[in-house]
Amino acid sequence: MNISVIRKPQPLINPSIRNSIITILIILIPVMLISFIISSVLVIDNNFANGFLTIMILFVISFLIEFLVLLASKDIIMILLGAEKVSAGEIFETVKDIAAKAKIPTPEVYIIPNPDPNAFAVGVIQSRSAIGLNYGILQLLNKDELRGVIAHEIAHIKNRDTLLMTTASFLLNFVGILIEFTGRLLFYRDNSRSALIGLVLMFVGIIFRIIVAPLMLLAISRTREYMADETGARLINDPISLANALQKIEDYYITNIKRMKEDVKRKYPNTEYTNQDNSNSSVKNALKMMYIGNTEPRTKTSFLKELLSTHPPTEKRIQRLKELARELGIY
Question: Exposure check for the chain: N or C terminus, fewer CB within 10 A?
C-alpha cells in the first residue's frame, strides 16, 4: 500500500520578505495620505496635482541621496573601526558556506581590533554587504557558537534588514516633517482657526519625530533581531549554539560593566560610573543597533527599559531559540 506523505505547504512569499513589505506599507500609506493633505494646503498655481507632484519629487530625491550615502557607509565604517579585510581562512570559508545556504552573494569579512565580543552586518544591498567580527568574539566563542553568530549576521543580510531600517527611518522622519510643515503653512495663514490647527500640527509633528518615530524604529529593530535569530538558526540547523553565544556575550558585558563600576568606585569614591564613551559616538551609536549582542545589558529588564532598547532581552531570545530547537527535534 502506498502511503503519500503530506508536506507542509510552503508560503508563496518568504515570511521575512512579507513582513518587510507589510512594515514599509504601514509607514508608506500615511506618507501618501499626509502628502495629499499638504497638497490641498500648498497649492502651486492653484493646481493640486502640481503640489502633490512637488512633494513626491522632493521625497524621491531625498531618499535617493540617503541611499547613495548608505552605499558608501560600509567602507566608511570599516575604515573608522580600523578593520582588516579577510579573504581566506576558516572564518571566511564559514561565511562563504552559510551565505551559499542562504542563497546570497558571499559578503566581505572584516576583523575589527576590538576586545569586546560582538559582530554586525552592514550594507543596503546584498551584493555590497559585509560582516564585521570584533577580535574579542573570536576569543570568547567556540567554533559552533561563532558559526551561529555568523549565521545570524548573514540572516540580516538575507532579510535585507539594513535596507528595511533605513527605509523605515526615512519614512517615519518624513511623516513627522510633513505634519510639521503642514502646520507651519496653516499657522501663517490669515485665519485664526487655521493658525490654531497649524500650531497643533506643528506640535504633533515635532512629538512624532522625537518620540513616536524613534520608538517605532526600536520596535522594528527588536522584531528584526528575533527574525535574524530564527533565520540564522534554521540556516545552520543549530539554534542552541546561537543561544549559547548570546548568553556568553551577555555574561561578558554584565561582568565587564560590574568590574568597571567597582574600579571606578574604588579609585574615585565620589564619582558614579556611566557606560558612556563619546569617542566616535555617532559610529558607536549606529553600531549599537547593528550588533548581535546588547552592549548595555541589564540583569532585570522593566517594560520601559525594554521599550527603549534596540535589542530584545537576551533571555527571551534564548527562550525562542530553545523553542525552535524543540520544533526542529534537536533539543
Answer: N
Q: Is 90 exposed, middle or buried (0-12, 13-18, 19+ CB in 10 A)?
A: exposed
Tell which residue, 101, 99, 107, 134, has the closest CA to residue 120. 134
24's CB contacts (< 8 A; 6+ apart) are 164, 167, 168, 171
Listed in order, strand segments (DSSP E) in the chain are 84-86, 108-112, 119-122, 130-134
**pLDDT given at position 137:** 93
State pLDDT tens for residues 227-247: 999 999 999 999 999 999 999
Question: How many whole angstroms separate alpha carbon 245 and alpha carbon 301?
Answer: 20
The DSSP symbol for 210 reads: I
Which secondary structure element, helix H or strand E, spans residue 22, and what is its range? Answer: helix 15-41
- Select from 310, 12, 294 the least CA-distant residue to 161: 310
Catalytic site residues? 153
> Is the entire prediction scored with pTM above 0.90?
no
